[in-house]
Structures are given as structure tokens and as C-alpha cells.
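Can't paste images in this forum, so I'm doing it all in text. The chain is below; anyone willing to post the predicted C-alpha cells underneath?
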Amino acid sequence: MLSGRSFTITFVFITLLSIGFQGCSSVTARQGTPFVSGIKDRSLSDKEKAYAYFCTGYSYMLDRDWENAAINFEKAILLDRSSERVIRHLATCYFQLGENEKSVDFIEKLARLKPHDFSVHYTLATLYETVGKHQDAIAEYERARRCKTTKLDNVFLADILYRLANLYMQEGMMEKGAECYQNMFDLKLVNEPAKIYYEIGQRYFEKNDIKKALEYFLKVKETDPKLSFASFYLTLCYDALNDYKNALKESNAFLEKDPDNWVMHLALSEIYGKIKNESKKSEEIEKTRKILRKNVDAGSKNTKEYFMLCQIYRNQHKISEAIDVIESMKLIPMDKETKRDTHFLLANLYYEDQKMNKVEEELQMTLKLDPDFHEASNFLGYLFVENNKNLDEAMQLINRALKAQPRNGAYIDSLGWAYYKKAQAEGRNDYLIIALQKLLEAVQLLEEPDIYEHIGDVHYSLGNWDEAVKVWEKAQTLYKTMRSNEVQVENITTKLEKVKSLISLEETSSKVIANHLGVETITRP
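Text version of the structure:
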């Protein structure tokens, strides 16, 4: 089948231009020579003037001088408002000039003049689709479908049904989209049904209707077994439906034809993980790593390959290798957003590697590329706070992040911690009170052990030792349930031992003082 995507709007206009050109053959004197200027010695009627302007516009159009063509066609339409051919050409000129809204206006007029014209509704629908008016496009495509068509129109009818199917599915009307595709089959407008089934399956998969997607991918396999990517999607469908036996079968069938497809090896590792086959899972991850390593070393331009290889190294706690991968990624072409994400990822990796100067450098680069990237604003602000550095700037950065996400518990924790650090630096108890308020607000939104630890630190500084013990013990419990938190557990255990020792010492001192006062009372005359 000729894919619907191959029909450009320009082609549609060219088709329309071929209609109604009669009556202008005499305009041959010289391309670009205004026809009107050659008429002398007598006054012209409005019809004659309109025709003269039309022919002049047409002459300019042959030279692809769309602007002067439009000027003359506009003069013609003022004198002959119902001229279909002038309206058609005005629509074409404005489309070529990039003024799509004006082009739409003229095709709408034409649709009112010719309500049963297939090509007019088709052109209008295509223009609506171009300017993002999807509902209007759907309505016009449906009107075109109801028009009488010739065999010549069948190619365009196939395109209409193809476009309609895609629009319906984009709008979430999956059954209507599938009905359009089916109509293509019924009218025998499809030469390669497997590709159509494949597209329907993809659409259902994107909408997370896995059972329907599976149904169509199975039709692909039945219609054309050579299309290996059907097995790729069948693997994903069976996996989502917990049918791991068939998922493994399809994934292996796919890898027989494409053994170096790292995406499938990665998907296969996840399937093995779900069925608790750890050795096979590790084997597939290692295959994925080797393929990605080979591609990256060969200078791959696919950023996803760098990110995924980095993630594998990170999961294996090989932070230096992960950093090297992303640093090498800086050498390949990237758009601005990907560059930003690259620097932000490096900041996180260097933080894990405890290279704080590099963390700050990468975060500054991130914010230079995107000043509104609130995750980086909060990270840099918190980094300054943790290192008792640039505390005023840190609070500005954190407040900028909070402006973007005022209910983000992590950001509120950062601000509370900044007030705590300011209180320590400036000896201000009022900042400690604000810090406690912010941290208590943060923990209501995000129950994380480090927020409890921060609350305990503030209580300790305020002399609320019993409260400090309660929240530190809560933090200790949460840290122990999480992996790779041995350092945090050790630190908070030390804090708890210290404060409990102080509480015990205080209680002992109080008893000694009380006993001393009691003895004094007894012995006093």
C-alpha cells in the first residue's frame, strides 16, 4: 500500500490546481508580464477585470512568485467573489507563503460553494491537520469519505482512511481508528496488510490496551512471518500479560534474526528477573553491556545507548565506568535538552563518587543550559547548604525550585536544612524554629529517613533531647530497611548514643542534686 504519510499537502494543492485551468491559455505573452497593463483603449467590465487580474496572478504563479500572485488573485476575488478557481489559487498561494490560516479560510469558502466535492473536503481536512485542528480535520475527512469518488480518487481515499485512523487513535478513539483500517481492507485499498496490522498493534500498545495489541501483532505474524519486529512487540505484550513462557519464546525468535539487539536482551533480562532466574538475568545484562560497550566505543550517535550503559555500570556500583561513559557522550551531537540531562546525570554520578567540585561544575552547566530546571536548582542549593557555602545563594536556588513545585517535600526539606545551617552560622534561634516548621511540613509530604534525621538535629539544637531521640530512632529504622545506607546508620547510631548518654548524665545529675538538697534539709537545724 502507498503509505498515507507519503501524501504531502503540496501534492494535494497541485492536484487541485490541475482542475479549472481552462480560460487562461492566452496568457503566454511573457511570464511575469501583468496582463492588465496590456489592455488599453477601452474600459473593462468587472468580469473582465477579474479575469485580467486572475490571468496576471496565474502568470506570477507560474514563476512561483506567490506573493504577487496572491495580490492579483485578491483583486480578482473582490470583483468576482464566487469564482471557484480564484479561491483555489488563493488558498494555494497562501499555503506556499506559509500563511496556513488564510489558506484554510479560502478552502472553507470553497467547501461552502462545493459541499459535495471530494477533493475540497480532503484538502481542507489536510490543512486542518497541519494547523493542529484535529477534530475539524476528522469532520472534514468524514465528509470526504461520504462524497462520490472515482477510481482516480481511490488513492486519496486510502490516504483519508489512513489519516483518519491515526487521528482517531491519537484522540483515544481506538475502535473508530480500527474501523477505518478495516474499511481500507474491505475496499481493497491495501497491498501490505501486515504493515497496517503492525501500526494498529503499535497504537493499542501505546494506549496500554495490551490484549488488543497482542491480537494485531499476532495478525502481523500470521500475514508476514518475515517481519521480525512483530516478535519484538509480541515479547513485550506477553511479558505485560505475565505469559512468560510465550514471552521467552518470542524474544528468542527475535534474537535469532537480530542477535545484537540490546533492547531485546535487556527486556529478556527483566523477564528472567520476574521468573527468579538470576543467572540468566545476569547473563542477559552482560550481553546487553557488551553490545552497548561495543557500540559506544565505535562512536555511536545514539544517546540512549550511552544512558543505558551508564545505568548498567551504576547498578553494578561501577561509578567510575559510568562517569567515563557519560563524559565520552559529550563528544557526540546532542540537542539542548539532552545536553542538560547529560550534565545533570554527571552531577549525580560525581556526587556518588564524592567529587564535590565536579558536582558543582556540572550543576552550573545544567542551569546555564536551562535556568528553570528546578531539580538542578534544588540540588545545587542543597550542595551549598551541606558544605556551609554560599548559604544566601543556596536559599535563593531552593526557593526558585519551590516556585516550580511548592509541594515538593524534598525541596521543602532543603529549605528547612538551609535555615538550620544559617541558625548555626549566625547563632539565631528564630531560624531554628523556622527550620523545624519547614522540616515538619516536608516529612508530611515525603517520609524519608534523612528528613527525620534533620528534624532530630534541630530538636537537639533546641535542647529537645527526648524529641530528638524519637525522630532519630525513626530515621534509624528507615535507614536499616534501605540498601547501601551503612554510613547513615552508623552516623545516626552515634548521635543516638551521644544524646542518650547526655540524657542519662542529666538524670543522674538531677538525682545527685535532689539527694544533696534532701540531706541538707535533714541536717539543717
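The first helix runs from residue 9 to 17. Residues 79 and 234 are 62 Å apart (CA to CA).
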